[in-house]
C-alpha cells in the first residue's frame, strides 16, 4: 500500500475509528493497542483507554496514532479489520536476509497523522512493541496489502 496524503475533510474519521474499535471489541483486543507515536519513535504516554478521544488525539499537531488492521500474529491466518483472515508474508531481500520474519511481527496496521488540513496514512508494522514502516516493495501485490488498501479507501470521500 502506498502512503496516502489526502485532505482531512475527505476522510471519514469517525467511521474509520468506529470500524477499528468494533474490530477490536469483536476480537477482545484492548483499545490501548491504538498507540500514539511521534513518528516511529517510542510510544507516547496516554491516559486510561476508556477515557481517550482518539479523533482529538489524532488532530494534535505532530501526533501519530497506530491503528492495527490485524489481530496479534499467531503464525496462522489472523483476523483483520475487514472481516477476513490473512497470513503474514515472509519476504526475502536480494541479500537472502529477511527484511522481517512473519513470526516476529505482532500486527500490521495504519500509522495515521494530521498536519494542518492534510491526513497522512501509511502502512506500518508493530514488532516487539516498536513501530516501523512496512516497505511497499515487500508487500506490494500481496493479499494483505491489497486488503488494507481496499479497507482504508472505504473511508475516503470525493473531492
Summarize the structure.
By secondary structure, the protein is of the alpha+beta class. The protein has helices at 13-27, 54-59, 136-139, 143-153, and strands at residues 4-7, 35-37, 64-68, 78-79, 85-86, 91-92, 98-100, 107-115, 118-127, 130-133. The strands form three sheets. Strands 1, 2, 3, 8, 9 and 10 form a six-stranded antiparallel β-sheet that branches. Strands 4-5 form a two-stranded antiparallel ribbon.
Looking at this protein, list some descriptive labels.
alpha+beta; six-stranded antiparallel beta sheet; two-stranded antiparallel sheet; 4 helices; 28% strand
Commentary on this structure:
- By secondary structure, the chain is of the alpha+beta class.
- It has one domain.
- It has 4 helices and 10 strands.
- The strands form 3 sheets. Strands 1, 2, 3, 8, 9 and 10 form a 6-stranded antiparallel beta sheet that branches. It has a two-stranded antiparallel sheet with strand order 4-5. It has a two-stranded antiparallel sheet with strand order 6-7.
- Strand 4 and strand 5 form a beta hairpin.
Question: How do the strands and helices of this protein lay out in sequence?
Answer:
Blueprint: E1 4-7, H1 13-27, E2 35-37, H2 54-59, E3 64-68, E4 78-79, E5 85-86, E6 91-92, E7 98-100, E8 107-115, E9 118-127, E10 130-133, H3 136-139, H4 143-153
Antiparallel strand pairs: 1-9, 2-3, 3-8, 4-5, 6-7, 8-9, 9-10
Amino acid at each position: 500500500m502506498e502512503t496516502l496524503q489526502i485532505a482531512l475533510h475527505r476522510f471519514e474519521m469517525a467511521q474509520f475509528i468506529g470500524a477499528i474499535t468494533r474490530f477490536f471489541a469483536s476480537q477482545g483486543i484492548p483499545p490501548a493497542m491504538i498507540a500514539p507515536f511521534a513518528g516511529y519513535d517510542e510510544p507516547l504516554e496516554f491516559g486510561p483507554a476508556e477515557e481517550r478521544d482518539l479523533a482529538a488525539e489524532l488532530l494534535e499537531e505532530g501526533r501519530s496514532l497506530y491503528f492495527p488492521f490485524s489481530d496479534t500474529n499467531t503464525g496462522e491466518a489472523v483476523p483483520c479489520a475487514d472481516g477476513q483472515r490473512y497470513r503474514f508474508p515472509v519476504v526475502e531481500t536480494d541479500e537472502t536476509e529477511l527484511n522481517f520474519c512473519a513470526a516476529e511481527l505482532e500486527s500490521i496496521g495504519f500509522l495515521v497523522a494530521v498536519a494542518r488540513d492534510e491526513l497522512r496514512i501509511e502502512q506500518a508494522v508493530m514488532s516487539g512493541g516498536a513501530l516501523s514502516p512496512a516497505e511497499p516493495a515487500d508487500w506490494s501485490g500481496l493479499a494483505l496489502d491489497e486488503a488494507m488498501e481496499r479497507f482504508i479507501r472505504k473511508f475516503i470521500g470525493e473531492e
